[in-house]
Amino acid sequence: MDKKYKENNGCAGICCRGCGKMDAPLNTFDWLACVPGNEEYTDIVEVQFKNTRKGYYKNSNNIPLQKGDIVAVEATPGHDIGKVTMTGRLVLLQLKKTRLTPESEFKRIYRKARPVDMEKYEEAKAREHDTMIRSRQIAKDLNLDMKIGDVEYQGDGQKAIFYYIADNRVDFRQLIKVLAEVFRIKIEMKQIGARQEAGRIGGIGPCGRELCCASFTTNFVSVSTSAARFQDISLNPQKLAGQCAKLKCCLNYEVDAYVEASRGIPPRDVELETKDGTFYFFKCDIMRGEVTYSTDKHIPANLVTISGRRAFAIIEMNKRGERPDALQTGGTQEPKRPVDLLEQENINRFDNASKGRRRKGGGAGRGEQKRNNGRRDKGQKDAKKGA
């Protein structure tokens, strides 16, 4: 392998340059990073700042940049410090998501960050938490119905962005004046939603993985309870809500597949007429395309499972005034699916069996001990008689 395609850190794969560190939200794998000429394809670079804030800047000075480089970029006023997250052809594809074109006006990249720039950057970041706590108290004193969820300082410390959440419109003109007097910086207020706040804070979801809003989700599409209904999910607010107290974003991931599969299931209010009697809808398995019917409308009785195609065929027969002999074809049972033992059995059954063996063994030990005690007492009595 040619040396120019090897990583400086010793990685053997040529695609390691596109991975980057997984220490920041919205990390993107640049699978074209190691393609020759990719960096010279366009002079537009994607730069990420704190948490989920990203921007696109023009490398007008033709600085050799790779993913992971820390750069100083143009800001208003001064400059900001960010990390390069993407270069080359994939940047043009990312621009389509933000409705930008290569002909749009972009701010410039000044240089790679110097030690002096990094010192100012670290000093500014160290003030963010205290500024957020102080600003919350100021907003409370002004009786503003809002919550300041995060504060982000610019790399040179001349400006700060205050991210806030509010249910209603808030007049924060007086708040900006007070904050500017207290912190002596330029203030920018930016309203975010509950989902964006969860993405900035981060966390682990009930699935055991990092929150989607903090890892890869950029566009927050509205989620409705109809998505749960299509997937036959229980409408329990505690289970459907995420850490942001809104409906989970993952409810929309598979809803299209369920909507497509549900077309093979007949309506639930349709009754099937056979010579054996009337059958009512009981439950269905959308992904398997199977429907279970009951002879009673309110309780499960004489349950019969058939395919969606068979159900539609019986419905067509009922429309023509015909009644089949039985729901299932030829009156035979449908082939049963393999039974999952772990689905019906308790996975702790082996532990219970071992406990029973221990109890049984313990009982045998105690019985043996009683017999030994009886023999010893009998021996003592015989010795007394002989004496």
- Number of spatially distinct domains: 4
* Number of helical regions: 12
The separation of the N and C termini measures 100 Å
Strand content: 15-25%
* Class from helix and strand fractions: alpha+beta
What form results from the Cα inertia axes?
elongated
Strand order of the largest sheet: 1-2-5-3-4
Order of helices and strands: EEEEHEHHEEHEHHHHHEEEEHHH
- Mean pLDDT score: 80
The major beta sheet can be summarized as:
5 strands, mixed, barrel
Helix percentage: 25-40%
Low-confidence stretches: 1-14
Number of strands: 12
Rg estimate, integer Å: 34 Å
Description:
The protein has 387 residues and is an alpha+beta fold. The protein has four domains: 3-113, no CATH class; 122-196, GMP Synthetase, Chain A, domain 3, CATH 3.30.300; 221-264, no CATH class; 265-331, no CATH class. It is 33% helix and 18% strand. The protein is built from twelve helices and twelve strands. It has helices at 89-97, 115-126, 128-141, 173-183, 194-201, 212-215, 225-230, 237-240, 255-261, 308-319, 341-344, 349-386; strands spanning 44-48, 54-58, 70-74, 79-86, 107-112, 147-153, 159-165, 186-191, 272-274, 277-285, 290-294, 304-307. The strands form three sheets. It has a five-stranded mixed barrel with strand order 1-2-5-3-4. It has a four-stranded antiparallel sheet with strand order 9-10-11-12, covered by helices on one side. A three-stranded mixed sheet has the order 6-7-8, with helices on both faces. Strand 1 (44-48) and strand 2 form a beta hairpin. The longest helix has 38 residues, at 349-386. The termini are far apart.
